[in-house]
Each structure stands twice: as structure tokens, then as C-alpha cells.
Design brief:
By secondary structure, this protein is an alpha/beta fold. 43% of the residues lie in helices and 16% in strands.
Length: 335
């Protein structure tokens, strides 16, 4: 059940912010004692709190922490998303508590989060069941997902990227370089982002008059090993592809290593495009042509959205996709 006493008896931070003529994050900073607020602004906020009878108490700790749940906490992808979450959390006066997706993510998960006084939960690239979402609703705990694997409910608030456009742009780039045998090594087939990238890949091939089913597609985990194993099998065949679109930068690094072990040069013998534009893309040899996915921005927007939901604000859209774009480096060349 939602915290009815809190909702009925207290003005929201949004009320205070409107009265003081400042943003909600600024009000949060004043409440939490942040030093980066001018004395004049701090005074206006305090006067607005007094005017609307807003009195913070110990139970307001629920608005000070956010639990961020990752399926994988060790990846470069997760690190960049988390960086954006932390930055936005600092601005809003919210403390981030990162953790792996809980093994006990059953009926008691939402109750545990509520009992710990969390303002809400961000779930990054993990599978959510409809029952879990319902439990968070019942507990009155705001929930936002980032780069969701699945959407158990249409109006579940989610932040993602234009994965279809990214898959299309990656493949179109290779087509424009003269490639026709373009393979695609993808992530798990059940992931929504992966499906969108695959559809973009196929659409670009069809637009170029290439039968998408004439080029190989393999699914696996978003790992270096998957990229290496799938690419090595393709590149050792008589009809090897001249280009490979990898579903993430880590897969692309595995592809590069597979080519090296077979004596193939990148990009002279094989062109490779990744996806994410993580730090790995700049560090690879050669530097990787890839699709830029705004990972930090996705994390920051998700945190700002969650902060608004925690203050019972109405958001404009339940699903937002940030733009992707092609970043050309040295792993692709004209055929």
C-alpha cells in the first residue's frame, strides 16, 4: 500500500520549488545540506517551505537514496550508465546505492526496498516480471528501467536509445563502403534492444537490394568470447564475410581478435562496426568504428525521471529514446 499519510499531509518538493522559483533538485540540495547553493537561494527555499507548511522529518530519508540494480555490474557499459546516474543523483541530492539484480527478486523485493527507505529503484538491462512491477506499484515505490530487456507493461517508465536507427546506420555505412557480405553477431535474441538493432540491420540490407537472409546472423551473450567464436567460424569459411556488424563494442573486440588469429587485417581484409561507443572503442586496435549510444545521458535522464516520480510529479512520456549516431574510426574501409 502507498504511504497515504505522506501524500495527504505533506506538500511535495515540487510545491516548494514552484513557490521559491527554483528547481526540485535545488530544493533537495537545501534539504540535504549541499554547499553549492547560494545563501539567497537557500533563504528563498526555506521561506517557501515555511509558507506551504513543508516540514522535513526523519522519515524523509526515503527521498535521499535510490537503489540501482544491474544484471552485470562489471561491464564498461554499466560503468558509463552508472556515471550518469551518480552525476544526476548529486544534482538532485540523492545517494545512489548500486547492486546486482537480487536473487531474492520475488514478492518481497519491493517490500524490502520500501523498508530501507529508498526513493525508488532504477533497473538496468535486467528482466522484470509483471508481478514484480505490480509489487512496486502496491508498495508506492517508483520504478524506472534503462535499456530494458523486456517491457512487462506498456506504461512502465523506461529510458533507452534509438537502437533500430543505430543498427540501420551501422549497416548502411558498410553498404556504402561497397560491402555486400555483411554478417551480424548479436546479443541474446530476447532482448528488446537487440531485436531493434537486428531489424535495423535487415532494413538497411533490404534498402540496398541485398537479401538479408543471405547473410549470417548469430546470437549469443554480449561477451568478447561470443564475438570471437562466431567470427572465427565465419572467417574460416570459404564464403567469409567482408564486414561484420557487432551488437556491442565488446563483441567487436572479439571479432577483431578472431580476424587476427586467422591472419586477416582490419580493415584491409575485414571491416567491423560495433555498438555503444564505450571507452573500449577508442582503446581497441585499430580504433573501432561504432554506433554512439548516449550511456551517461541515459543514466542521468533515468535518475532525473525517477526523482520526479518520487515527488509525485506527472511525467510527459513513459518511454524516452535518446538518439544514436555513427562514429567513424579506423576499423572500416572501402571494399
Amino acid at each position: 500500500m502507498k504511504n497515504a499519510d505522506y501524500e495527504a499531509a505533506r506538500s511535495t518538493l515540487a510545491t516548494v520549488a514552484q513557490l521559491a522559483g527554483v528547481s526540485v533538485p535545488t530544493v533537495s540540495k537545501v534539504l540535504n545540506g549541499h554547499i553549492h547553493v547560494s545563501a539567497a537561494t537557500r533563504q528563498r527555499v526555506r521561506e517557501a517551505m515555511k509558507d506551504c507548511d513543508y516540514t522535513p522529518v526523519g522519515s524523509r530519508q526515503e527521498t535521499r537514496t535510490v537503489e540501482v540494480v544491474f544484471d552485470d555490474l562489471t561491464s564498461v557499459y554499466s560503468a558509463q550508465v552508472l556515471g550518469g546516474i551518480i552525476d544526476a543523483g548529486d544534482e538532485a541530492g540523492l545517494t545512489v546505492v548500486p547492486r546486482r539484480f537480487p536473487d531474492e527478486a520475488g514478492p518481497g523485493w519491493a517490500s524490502r526496498v520500501r523498508s530501507h527507505g529508498r526513493a525508488g529503484v532504477l533497473v538496468v538491462s535486467a528482466v522484470l516480471e509483471p508481478e514484480q512491477v505490480e509489487r512496486f506499484d502496491e508498495a508506492g515505490v517508483p520504478l524506472v528501467v534503462i535499456d530494458s530487456i523486456n517491457l512487462p507493461r506498456k506504461n512502465l517508465t523506461s529510458i533507452g536509445a534509438t537502437n533500430f536507427n543505430g543498427g540501420f546506420a551501422a549497416t548502411e555505412h558498410l553498404v556504402q563502403l561497397g560491402h555486400r557480405r555483411i554478417a551480424h553477431v548479436a546479443g541474446p535474441p530476447q532482448m528488446a534492444c537487440n531485436v531493434a538493432r537486428l531489424h535495423g540491420y535487415r532494413a538497411a540490407l533490404e534498402q540496398a537490394g541485398i537479401d538479408p537472409h543471405s547473410n549470417p546472423v548469430e546470437h549469443g551473450l554480449f561477451t568478447y568470447e561470443t564475438g570471437f567464436e562466431r567470427a572465427r567460424a565465419w572467417l574460416a569459411s570459404a564464403e567469409r564475410p567482408t564486414a561484420i556488424f557487432a551488437g556491442c563494442d565488446l563483441l567487436a573486440l572479439g571479432v577483431i581478435e578472431a580476424a587476427r588469429t586467422l591472419g586477416l587485417r582490419v580493415p584491409e581484409d575485414l571491416s567491423i562496426v560495433g555498438f555503444d561507443d564505450s571507452h573500449l572503442a577508442e582503446w581497441s586496435s585499430p580504433p573501432l568504428t561504432t554506433i554512439h549510444q548516449p550511456l551517461r545521458e541515459m543514466g542521468a535522464l533515468a535518475m532525473r525521471t525517477l526523482a520526479r516520480l518520487a515527488e509525485r510529479e506527472t511525467i510527459e512520456s513513459h518511454h524516452v529514446e535518446l538518439a544514436t549516431h555513427l562514429v567513424t574510426r579506423q576499423s572500416t574501409a572501402r571494399l
